[in-house]
C-alpha cells in the first residue's frame, strides 16, 4: 500500500507516467468514467479548502466512485478530542482511500502509519502540499512542454507557504532550474531551503522588488500572504498588500512567461491580469482535477 506525503514520494519517472495519465484523462475522459466504480474516497479536511477538497471530490466522481467526508473539524469527532490515528483506523473501514488536510505539520503522516488505506496529504500546516505541487508540475509540463530549463520566480509568502516549499523540493530534481525568491524580509524562504540549494549548487537569487526581476522570468508563481499563519494581526496588515501584480508589471515580462498561483487569491494579482493569456491560474486549478484522478487511479492500482 502506498501513501502520498511529499511530491518526492514519486520518482521523476513515476511523475512522468502520472502526468501522461493525467493528460490522457483530460483528452479521453470517457475511457476512465467507470474505473473507480464501487470505490469510496474519504475527504477529511480539518482546515478550510475549496480547490483541494472539491477537486478530489470531482476527481473521484468523474472516475465513477463515491465520496464521504467532512469539510470542517468542528463537524467531526475531532471536536470531541479524537486523534487522527483513531479517526483513520475507523475510516479505513468506511473508504478505500483518504485525502487529509490538517493544520498540524505531519498529521497526515501520523494517520498514514495507522491507516489500512492509502492516505494522501492534502496540505499539512506550513509544511507540504504535494497534490498542489503535482498540479503545478502538470500545468507547467502541459503548457510549457517541459519541466526544466527555466527561471522561476516565487513571490509573496515564501516563509509559511507550503505550496512554495513543496514546489521547490520537486523542481530541484529537474535540469537547469534557476530560482528567484521575491519576498519581504519577514517572509523570506526558510534557511533550510537556501542551505539545501547551496549544497546542491542550484542557482538562486533573493530580491524584494518584483519589478526588477520580471524580465528574466519564464514562470512567475504568485502566492497569498496567509492570514491564518500569522501570530499577530499587525504584521499581517503590514505585509498583506506588499505585492500586487498588475498590467503595468506584466508589461515588463516575457511574452511567453506564465503566471501561476495555487489560489485562493486575495489582492496579490489584480483582476485586470486575468484576461492576459499568460495568466494561467484558473487553468492550473482545472489541471488539479486531472492530476488527482491520475493519483487516485495510481494509488488504488487501477490504472487501465
Ligand atoms: N490551492 C489550494 O490548496 O486551495 P484550497 O485551500 O482552496 O484547497
Structural class: alpha/beta
Biggest pleated-sheet summary: 5 strands, parallel
> Mean pLDDT score, rounded?
95
- The total beta strand count reads 9
What's the helix-strand series?
A: HEHEHEHEHEHEHEHEHHEH
Instruction: Specify the helix fraction band.
Output: 25-40%
- Give the strand order of the largest sheet, numbering strands 1, 2, ... along the chain: 7-6-5-8-9
Rounded to the nearest angstrom, the distance between the terminal CA atoms is 18 Å
Which descriptor suits the 3D outline?
globular
Characterization of this structure:
- It is a single chain.
- With 304 residues, the chain is an alpha/beta fold.
- The chain is 37% helix and 15% strand.
- It is built from eleven helices and nine strands.
- It has helices at 12-27, 51-62, 84-91, 107-114, 130-144, 162-171, 191-199, 210-213, 233-239, 247-250, 281-299, and strands at residues 40-45, 66-70, 97-102, 119-124, 150-155, 177-182, 204-207, 219-222, 258-260.
- A five-stranded parallel beta sheet has the order 7-6-5-8-9.
- Helix 7 links the parallel strand 6 (177-182) and strand 7.
- Helix 1 (12-27) crosses helix 11 (281-299), helix 2 packs across helix 11 and helix 5 (130-144) crosses helix 6.
- The protein is globular and about 55 Å long.
- It starts with 11 loop residues before the first helix and ends in a 5-residue tail after the last helix.
Question: In a few lines, what is going on in this structure?
Answer:
The protein is of the alpha/beta class and 304 residues long.
Features:
304 residues; four-stranded parallel sheet; 11 helices; 9 strands; 37% helix; binds phosphoric acid mono(formamide)ester
Amino acid at each position: 500500500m502506498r501513501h502520498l506525503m511529499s511530491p518526492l514520494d514519486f520518482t521523476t519517472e513515476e511523475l512522468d507516467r502520472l502526468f501522461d495519465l493525467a493528460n490522457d484523462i483530460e483528452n479521453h475522459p470517457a475511457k476512465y468514467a467507470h474505473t473507480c466504480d464501487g470505490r469510496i474516497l474519504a475527504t477529511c479536511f480539518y482546515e478550510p479548502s475549496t480547490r483541494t477538497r472539491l477537486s478530489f471530490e470531482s476527481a473521484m466522481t468523474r472516475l465513477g466512485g463515491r465520496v464521504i467526508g467532512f469539510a470542517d473539524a468542528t463537524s467531526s469527532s475531532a471536536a470531541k478530542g479524537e486523534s487522527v490515528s483513531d479517526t483513520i483506523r475507523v475510516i479505513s473501514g468506511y473508504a478505500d482511500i483518504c485525502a487529509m488536510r490538517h493544520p498540524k505539520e505531519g498529521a497526515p503522516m501520523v494517520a498514514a502509519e495507522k491507516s489500512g488505506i492509502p492516505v494522501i496529504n492534502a496540505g499539512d500546516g506550513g509544511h507540504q502540499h504535494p497534490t498542489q505541487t503535482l498540479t503545478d508540475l502538470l500545468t507547467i509540463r502541459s503548457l510549457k512542454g517541459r519541466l526544466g530549463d527555466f527561471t522561476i520566480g516565487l513571490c509573496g509568502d515564501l516563509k509559511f507557504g507550503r505550496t512554495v516549499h513543496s514546489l521547490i523540493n520537486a523542481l530541484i530534481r529537474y535540469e537547469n532550474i534557476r530560482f528567484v525568491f521575491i519576498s519581504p524580509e519577514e517572509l523570506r524562504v526558510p534557511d533550510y531551503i537556501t542551505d539545501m540549494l547551496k549544497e546542491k549548487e542550484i542557482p538562486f537569487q533573493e530580491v524584494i522588488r518584483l519589478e526588477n526581476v520580471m524580465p528574466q522570468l519564464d514562470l512567475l508563481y504568485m502566492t497569498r500572504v496567509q492570514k491564518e499563519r500569522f501570530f499577530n494581526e499587525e504584521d499581517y496588515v503590514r505585509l498583506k498588500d506588499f505585492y500586487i501584480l498588475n498590467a503595468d508589471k506584466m508589461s515588463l515580462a516575457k511574452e511567453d512567461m506564465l503566471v501561476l498561483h495555487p489560489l485562493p487569491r486575495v489582492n496579490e494579482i489584480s483582476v485586470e491580469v486575468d484576461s492576459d493569456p499568460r495568466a494561467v491560474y484558473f487553468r492550473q486549478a482545472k489541471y488539479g482535477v486531472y492530476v488527482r484522478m491520475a493519483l487516485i487511479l495510481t494509488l488504488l492500482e487501477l490504472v487501465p
